Amino acid sequence: MRDLRIYVGLYLSLLLFACGKSSSPTPAPPVPPVTTSFSFNTLKVNGTYSGFTYVNVNSTPTIKLSFLAALDKSTVGTAVTLKDKAGTAIPYTVTYENADSTVIVSPTLSYISKYTLSVATGLKSTKGGYLQSGIDVNLTTAIDAADKFPVISDDALLDLVQKQTVKYFYDFGHPTSGLARERNTSGDVVTTGGSGFGIMGMVAAVNRGFITRADGLARMQKIVGFLKTKAVRFHGAFPHWLNGATGAVQPFSNLDNGADLVETAFLMEGLLTARQYYSGAGSDETTLRADITTLYNNVEWDWFRQGGQNVLYWHWSPSNGWAINMKITGWNEALVVYALAASSPTHGIPKEVYDNGWASNGSIKNGNTYYGVKLPLGMAQGGPLFFEHYSFLGINPTGLADAYANYEDQAKAHSLINYNYCVANPNSNTGYGANCWGLTASDIENGYTASSPTNDVGVISPTAAISSLPYTPTQSMAALRFFYYKLGDKMWGDYGFKDAFNLTNPWFASSYLAIDQGPEIVMIENYRSGLLWNLFMSCPEIKTGMKGLGFTSPNL
């Protein structure tokens, strides 16, 4: 019996031990602390919410960013960044509100500049949570309303613009040839057409006393001597670009390594104007006139009919022939080509080349109304404004008419359409308006384009409005004042106004282009005195040739 009790006791002890082992809980792995992510709540820039893009922002904005959690201040400096368009970090100060759930960013910004304020997901809350999604706030600062230079009379301002801009052609002219560099970074590359504009500009500068007559004559002798003895020509026509030291062709493109008849015409427009100005009886001026006449008479305008066709062709290459095959047809900047060709006493063209080639037997006409203005000629809404500048640096459109248009009406209508378009501003570009207008060919950020109402990329070029002074004097003068007084700290430099700017996506050119600088000087002068118009229209060849094309004008 005793043994049985012992056995039962051991059995119960084992049973209790087994039951106790199986019912004991298994220790769970440690659980990390729970971190709750948080989200962005509201944004205000200077007390206003308008999404994540703000324009016309002042230079010291208050930017409030509110979140749904108190912030860990130690993470704000790295998670909240402010950078300019170039990616440079901009310093700012911070303060906090609403129990540290609102951060107030206070920077000092430059005017007319673009910035991005970014908040990264590395921003933490006081509870250790991270921001769920990052945000970007785009800021574009406003124009500084202060005048950048002392206010002077309009007449003094026009003097200043002409005097400063002509330095591009006189001070910065190529030291060997005297010709105009294509742009301020072109080195030895000079432009034939742009040099023609510069020649006219220097004539205006001599007439106003900015350059002495003797110095102006010396520069003309250098230019004409180089063109006569060193510069390559093809059937009397010059290439678009030359090497200003050697006179060799600088190809404009793969196929364009020969004659450019349009650029040659712009050069001749300037040379003939200078010929008429330097009318003195002395041997220096007499020789200059004779040399210019020879250069003009040697251009084989009729040869560019490519086998006797009733149209002129733009290009010819010694290695590629007529491969570009581009006809010179209107309406564009090249009216002066046909005027000079018809006026040539040695290689003239008949009227049917003008009628069939340039005017396309009347299809050059437009007649539609844009922004309340009827446009006689050309493409819809007029195209870039240089169409009304380059030929009319010398050809006076005042009272000029033929079978296709009244050219005074054309120039004024095109300019007013361009102006009215910018005032209407259908693309909502920043800055466009009555004081800031003018679409033409110019540099743009990372490129070049012919801006117009049908190709509006937000870029204004000062030459567009300034060179339209004879057509839209009130509107152009308002723009000139704006460019100088309000944007002068960014746009005014050693050679006058820089080429272009964009206030929507702020960008300011550092460039000067001969074909944009020259028309400003010339058209300011034509507005003030008509000097260049009077000189060019006084050429006996031009009088005969344009009358032969059917033009009538009190100036012929």
Task: Describe this protein's structure.
The structure is a single chain. By secondary structure, this protein is of the alpha+beta class. It folds into two domains: 40-141, Immunoglobulin-like (Sandwich); 154-548, Alpha/alpha barrel (Glycosyltransferase). 35% of the residues lie in helices and 14% in strands. A four-stranded antiparallel beta sheet has the order 1-3-6-5, with no helix packed on it. The protein has a four-stranded mixed beta sheet with strand order 2-8-7-4. The radius of gyration is 35 Å and the shape is elongated. 46% of the residues are buried. Residues 1-23 have low confidence and may be disordered.
Strands of the widest sheet, in order across it, are 1-3-6-5
| Reported CATH architecture of the largest domain | Alpha/alpha barrel
Sheet of most strands: 4 strands, antiparallel
Q: State the distance separating the first and last CA atoms.
A: 152 Å
Task: Give the class-level CATH name of the largest domain.
Answer: Mainly Alpha
Continuous helix count: 17
The name CATH uses for the topology of the largest domain is Glycosyltransferase
Q: Work out the helicity level.
A: 25-40%
CATH superfamily of the largest domain: Glycoside hydrolase 144 (GH144)
Number of domains: 2
Overall mean pLDDT stands at 94
Shape: elongated
| Count of distinct strands | 21
Q: What proportion of the residues form beta strands (DSSP E)?
A: 5-15%
Low-pLDDT runs of 5+ residues are 1-23
Signal peptide: 1-28
Domain SbsA Ig-like: 54-137
Domain Glycoamylase-like: 327-540
InterPro entries: Glycoamylase-like_cons_dom, SbsA_Ig
